[in-house]
Amino acid sequence: MFDLFSLICFGSLGLAIFIFGILIGFLIKNSYRSRLFLNQNRGEASVRKLISLNFKSQNFHLLNNITIPFQDGTTQIDHILISTKGVFVIEVKHYSGWIFGNEKSDKWTQTIYRVKNSFQNPIRQNYRHVKAIQQLLEFLPKEQIHSIVVFSGSAQFKTPIPNGVFYPNQLVSHLNSFQDDVISSNRLEFSVGRLECKRYELTNATDIQHRAYLAKKFGD
Question: What CA–CA distance (Å, rounded) separates 184 from 144?
């Protein structure tokens, strides 16, 4: 009788510990995602401010946090700078620690105090964004639409920085390196109008719909 009672108690305790472990893991994972989301917002705000301060003329128009339809779902873009110099599709990553990655890898790695976290290759991520913009602005030559990835946090690359990836202090000089006017003022205005017309309303519902699509497509 005692042995059976002990077995039942031990089994109940083991089950409780197992459920508690799952709960703690869930809370830690969601806490990490919440911090990542808040940091990402800070990063996007800092890049938005940097661009707005340095590119004020009528030849530049900045769109922020754009969700547009693409293929079987949606894609969400941090910033699009539309100018007579070209269209710049900008993905922001606000990370700390060390970053390891290259253009061809599916995943990159962030290391903080020996703790490693993997994340989607932002160059590949932004490639999808660029394709979506090329599709919407089909009247522009594809070579006039450029991909830019900005690491706005304190992260440092421990592998060579891939082409098209910049720290904030490199972004302005890179944008200024495009000297030639390749898009007319009329086409600039038409491009802005097309994107404003096609973008989804900036609401929580839009964000939830986009995250649900990502979870279904990428299982995250």
Answer: 12
